[in-house]
TrEMBL record:
GO terms for molecular function: methyltransferase activity. Belongs to the CFA/CMAS family. InterPro entries: CFA/CMAS, CMAS, SAM-dependent_MTases_sf. One of its GO terms (biological process) is lipid biosynthetic process. This is Cyclopropane-fatty-acyl-phospholipid synthase. CDD domains: AdoMet_MTases. Keywords: Lipid metabolism, Methyltransferase, S-adenosyl-L-methionine, Transferase. It comes from the Bacteria.
Length: 427
């Protein structure tokens, strides 16, 4: 008679079926000390049967993510190596819906849970998870404000630890991996200002202004008059303090305002950086028209947004990113956003792909988070720190593998002075 399988071996067999792979890509170490999986593979410590119960109720990345955020799973090795192994299955780390787990696999998982003493009702989600149904109609102003608050109003001290002195929460521009995060972010801010051809006295609208870094750079270095808008009250409060401390209050105004309600155009330039991901596919034509209408004839728009490169994108409310990080976030392909902007009459002058720059940026943010881990946990709790670690590392891998990209598109409203014959003098 063969010996009874260890708890780890039983769970490994079930997880292999959940992931849809021939061999488990990680090694499991369970609460009873048993282990299973390839020697030398990244180790996931399963601290509690409750983690198995979460996986039974939500097979795939959502169940695994909930267990990690709740502290029922730990990653014992490098987070990038562990996630790279898991995402090779296709059931983890995708922003799209995956094929539902079959009945046979679900029954096997339930049987394994029963043998491991993990059967029971669906555990309550960690408090860091957001339930979208609480917010009302998708992409209404109220729901957008709630979704933005969920992500950005988690404590300015926490973001400062992750982002560094620049307080810029979008892709930096790197000369090389050795550039350093702060210098790369300053280079990005300056590149935006040069692309927009900002001059003293020019009116700039910064849509989704964050903590005011671009607004301050444009006002201080280029003499622009800037209006920055955000839906995050915590961002706006800190941005106003930074503006005042820099002596720029006469040139920078920070508002808590939806882009749909801005009515004091026209502006000489508009920057939308890392904001379009929150707009929603159905609202993109209206969004593009609004940006067009806020520009004066001849004015420029710098549109900086993440793009989904891995085929057709369908938003899924049950991914880890949707539940914990970016409620209602939707990614478009580059052609979709350029087409929508051009449909308003804007002329595309230049497109610059920055995919690998975002991978470097995200790795720098994860490095800062891990080096400041105790302070980050003290600032905003262990669960939130775990969410940010998981999402930023997973996003870095998505940029490195080409599933996601990020692009700066420069456009101009017809009328006014024509663009120069050669535009790349900002390099």
């Amino acid at each position: 008679m063969g010996s009874k399988q260890s708890s780890a071996a039983q769970l490994a067999a079930a997880v292999t079926e959940v992931l849809g792979v021939a061999q488990l890509p990680v090694r499991l170490r369970l609460w009873d000390g048993s282990e299973a999986g390839p020697p030398g593979a990244p180790v996931i410590r399963v601290r509690s049967p409750r983690a198995v119960r979460r996986l039974m109720w939500a097979p795939g990345e959502l169940g695994l993510g909930r267990a990690y955020v709740a502290g029922e799973l730990d990653l014992e090795d490098d987070v990038f190596a562990t996630l790279a192994a898991l995402t090779s299955s296709g059931r983890v780390g995708s922003a799209e819906p995956t094929t539902p787990l079959g009945v046979r696999a679900r029954l096997r998982l339930a049987a394994t849970a029963a043998r491991l003493g993990a059967l029971g009702p669906d555990p309550a989600p960690p408090p860091e998870e957001v339930r979208l149904r609480r917010f009302g109609r998708r992409h209404s102003r109220a729901r957008d404000a709630a979704a933005i608050s969920h992500h950005y109003d988690v404590g300015n001290d926490f973001y400062a630890l992750v982002l560094g002195a620049s307080l810029v929460y979008s892709c930096a521009v790197w000369d090389s991996p050795a550039t350093g995060l702060d210098a790369a972010q300053e280079a990005k801010l300056d590149l935006v200002c040069r692309k927009l051809d900002l001059r003293p006295g020019a009116r700039l609208l910064d849509v989704g202004c964050g903590w005011g870094s671009l607004a301050m750079h444009a006002a201080d270095r280029y003499g622009a008059q800037v209006v920055g808008i955000t839906l995050s009250r915590e961002q706006a409060g800190l941005a106003r303090r930074r503006v005042a401390e820099a002596g720029l209050a006469d040139r920078v105004q920070i508002r808590v305002q939806d882009y749909r309600t801005v009515d004091d155009g026209p502006f000489d330039a508009v920057a939308s950086i890392g904001m379009a991901e929150h707009v929603g596919r159905a609202n993109v034509p209206r969004y593009a028209t609004r940006l067009h209408d806020l520009l004066r004839p001849g004015g420029r728009l710098l549109h900086h947004a993440i793009a989904w490169n891995a085929g057709a994108f369908q938003a899924d409310p049950d991914t880890f990113i949707a539940r914990f990080v970016f409620p209602d976030g939707e990614l478009l392909g580059l052609a979709d956003i350029v087409g929508a902007l051009e449909a308003t009459g804007l002329e595309a002058l230049d497109v610059e792909a920055l995919r690998l720059h975002y991978a470097l940026t995200l790795r720098a943010w994860v490095d800062r988070l891990e080096k400041n881990w105790d302070a980050a946990v003290a600032a905003n709790g262990l669960g939130r720190a775990r969410v940010w670690r998981l999402y930023m590392a997973g996003s870095a891998l998505a940029f490195e593998t080409g599933r996601m990209g990020v692009n700066q598109v420069l456009l101009q409203r017809p009328g006014g002075d024509p663009p120069p014959l050669r535009l790349r003098d900002w390099r």
